[in-house]
Amino acid sequence: MKVLTFALLVTTGLFAAESAALASDNVIYQKHCASCHGADRLGGSGPALLPENLRRLRKNKADGVIADGRPASQMPAFGKTLTSAEIADLVKLIYTPLKAVPVWGMAEVSASHIEHVAMAALPAKPPFSADPLNLFTVVETGDHHVTILDGDKFEPLARFATRFAVHGGAKYSPDGRFMYLASRDGWVSKYDLYSLQVVSEIRAGINTRNVAVSSDGKFLMVGNTLPHTLVALSAETLRPIKVIDVKDKHGVSSRVSAVYNAPPRNSFVAALRDIPEIWEISYDPKVKIYKGLVHTYNEDNPEGIAEKGPFPVRQIVLDDYLDDFFFDLDYRNLIGAARNAKNGQVVNMNVGRKIADIDLAGMPHLGSGITWNYQGKPVLATPHLKGGQVSVIDMQNWSTVKIIETKGPGFFMRSHKNTPYAWVDVFFGPNKDLMHIINKRTLEIVKTIRPVPGKTAAHIEFDRDGSHAILSIWDQDGAIIVYDAKTLEEVKRLPMKKPSGKYNVWNKINYAAGTSH
Ligand code: DHE
């Protein structure tokens, strides 16, 4: 019923009328595509057909998808119905940005909410014997599915279809029972890891970056690039609490680059793409923002409290745009790669300004880095997207400890406190099938493996006790491969459809230093 209401809203174009012009003029689009993808290209039962949402589909492959359809989906083949000129016209249309940012406010977000199962109807205990805190979520981007993996035996417990193009890490409730997924299309799904079913869903945006879960488990914060909003949801029901327009004091709006939870601060922190600011959004009921700084609310002296109500925003103004960042171990400093600078920058969250530059020119992917103790000091290590190097940076004085030369640019690096090794992929170029294993004590590559010649080897995640490392073979005919983390020998291989990230419940809820947060 809810899906119908939403599809009707989309297909009748009750919102975003201005942006509809281009698609509504295209007779072929309206005849063959609009019923699933929306009259305004904003999505319906099929994904949104906007350049922002189609980043994973190369433009020169799009005509093939229209002509041949998509296996394991409802996308039919139009090769016999449409001419190649008509298909080329459709490709041009779907890669053309909308003229205006679509309206997707509180009303539209609320109307998209779907409750599949009432929370009260969920069982108190899981029916399986596997350790529920050692489960893995494996995102299979090849056919838009997720596999829930028993992390003790490395056997699948469940597999289900997700929304189109889930991206970024699965997030968990602090007790590890519920898993939250965000799709590039803006859908946030809540999954019960005990009864192994999707509980509820909501479309929080038209194009979404990622979702964060508050430390108290009460709230989710969703960062969007379309429209320019941050959306706070109830973690219990997924119903929206607040839609925050992302704008600077001059009214210039911005896409959100990413939003993360900062546990000791009881806040969410967001990086913005189009304005040089970081936003800190508190969910601590005692915190208020005054003159740009966080204040603990004092009932005896409420004077000068600038912003009241839930989720007050502290806007930290920077010299340069910050596309991505990591935090240090106590969440006091944020380390990011600035877009126009040659170096990275360290922003101290307490004083709200840059305190150091770091040598981090090769723009890492968000959430790629890890930390550990090296010779008694905390270090941060991250591969570079633009070159075959891993930077190891001293987190006390922000100097570079070592640049480790690798066989090509990497996406992800992972480790665990119980292993002496850090694993880093070589995602791009002729050596994409290699994975390096670095000794965290000597900072030397001790082994390089080639699990499947010619196929990309990527993204490691460890099990709860760090005794096994799991690697993805990033291919339609792919696999996950389990390694003994001590001997570095293969233990098991499970076929999967282009598995991207894998997320261990224990490591994620404990904000383990060797994994993404
Ligand atoms: Fe990602 C995480 C942004 C391209 C696979 N990626 C993230 C996160 C962000 C992000 C903000 C953190 C989300 C979180 O966990 O909360 N990604 C971006 C980009 O800006 C970029 C470079 C361009 C874009 O298309 O948006 C990008 N990412 C990719 C890919 O091309 C990858 C390899 C394939 C894909 O699925 O799109 C990819 N991103 C991933 C994965 C994670 C991720 C597997 C989670 C890593 C983790 O261990 O947490």
Rg on CA atoms, Å: 23 Å
User: Uncertain regions: pLDDT < 50 for 5+ in a row?
Assistant: 1-21, 300-306
What's the helix count?
A: 8
Number of strands: 35
From the helix content, strand content and strand pairing, which structural class follows?
Answer: mainly beta
On the 0 to 100 scale, the average pLDDT is 88
The description of the largest β-sheet is:
5 strands, antiparallel
CATH topology of the domain at 368-500: Methylamine Dehydrogenase, Chain H
CATH homologous superfamily of the domain at 368-500, by name? Answer: YVTN repeat-like/Quinoprotein amine dehydrogenase
> Order of strands in the sheet with the most strands?
1-8-7-6-5
Alpha carbon gap, first and last residue:
36 Å
Describe this structure in words.
The chain has 517 residues and is mainly β. Helix content is 11%, strand content 38%. A hairpin with a 4-residue loop joins β21 (344-348) and β22 (353-358). The chain is globular, with a radius of gyration of 23 Å. Among the domains are: 6-94, Orthogonal Bundle (Cytochrome Bc1 Complex, Chain D, domain 2); 368-500, Methylamine Dehydrogenase, Chain H (7 Propeller), CATH 2.130.10. The protein contains 8 helices and 35 strands. The two termini are 36 Å apart. Bound molecules: heme D (DHE).
